[in-house]
Amino acid sequence: MNMYTFSNPYLEELAANLRARPIPWEGYQRAGLISEVDLKKIKAVDGNNRGRRLQVVQEDGIGYAELTLGLMQKTKRIDIQQYVLVLAGDLISEVDGWVNVLLSLQENNSDLPYSPLLKLLFQDVWLAYLCRHLKSDDESVTLLAAKVLAFVLSADPNPPIDVMRSFLEYAANLNASRDTVHQDLAVQAYSGVLKSDEVRLLFWEIEKCPTNLIVALKKNNGGVQLQYNILLVIWLLSFQPSLAREVNKKYDVVLLLSDILKSAIKEKITRVALAIFRNLIKNAPEENLLAMLVARVLDLTNNLAKRKWSDTEIIEDLQFINEELTCNFEQLTTFDEYTSEVESGHLSWTPPHRNMDFWGQNAVRFAEYDNSLLKQLTNLLKSSNDALVLAVAAHDLGQYLKYVPDGRSVLQNLGAKERIMELMGHPDSDVRYEALSAVQVFMTHAWQE
């Protein structure tokens, strides 16, 4: 059987209805829509005798590959398109190795003497047939074609990059749909094709692919199964080191996964979320360990470790994550923790912000790396809509200036002073208070316009 599995109740019901619908094949043959050979092949596999169908297709796999793909190419009738797409999906799922028969049409072989010429003239012509259906006006044809194409691409050890790009872009648009059936189809398709670093990097390069995926995870409108399928995709991506380095910086997945783990009821959700954490630590420790410590993942995993788990992978991953975080926690300085919090963009009243010793010891370090921390705090003041983030950022810039008076020109050039003065009129009382306090520090040091 094909190793890639696909389960979508809507498509399964649709396929069942289409299988039961009678099609006037003899009339289509008389009208010239299909050939006599096509008719014989269809009649040989039509009906509910699965054993008979398996035997027929195993004996003539190439013939049925040519039949299904040929009809996809030449027919304009939606009922025939639907039929052959359902048939192709059934044969891929039921007939061991038939998807490889489809792939073999790319090669020069004795069964298809014209295949070398076809390969030169129409590279991956059979995949092009399927891609053509992805633009069909009939949704059932579109979705069925997407499913078949996902199966074929998942089985191809070297999928054509142009076809893969088109398919990933299509799936990203499907993932953005409000319809959870569409989202589920897209996410399961991703799970099938994201097997190599090349495809994972291509997925990441098409920005709407990861963006729409994370948006769907945050909304979580599709229940536990869709959430699980999305997490599986993130897990696949986390095997690629460069993506493991970037994913939290771009999408705050550490906090997102932490929230999911806190509320997870099903063990499978816990298992895959922890597996993602494990990969992020193994493949990009410098980028993710600090973020996990700031997000209190160590406290979370310590609590999870106290529960009884039937899944040994959960136990092993918890042990690995706890050991790594504990080791790094012992080496973590307060300034490291503060820096990671600012970089995450999720400011809160953690201990360093109101600790005078922290500011006395570390304020001068805010100018390191071309004023990186000052720039990040100023950007948060300008871009965030979170009152807590605004209050903490205004407070911290005021504290910095209190201990480093010479830094006022840097803050002024960054636009921090102007923005803090604007925040004195913010509707939130804490933001107004911290902004006013910071302005008072500016005035104390005679900050000139």
UniProtKB/TrEMBL annotation:
Residues 331-447 form the ATPase V1 complex subunit H C-terminal domain. This is V-type proton ATPase subunit H. InterPro entries: ARM-like, ARM-type_fold, ATPase_V1-cplx_hsu, ATPase_V1-cplx_hsu_C, ATPase_V1-cplx_hsu_C_sf. Gene3D superfamilies: Leucine-rich Repeat Variant (1.25.10.10), V-type ATPase, subunit H, C-terminal domain (1.25.40.150). Belongs to the V-ATPase H subunit family. Keywords: Hydrogen ion transport, Ion transport, Transport. V-ATPase is a heteromultimeric enzyme made up of two complexes: the ATP-hydrolytic V1 complex and the proton translocation V0 complex. It comes from Neolecta irregularis (strain DAH-3).
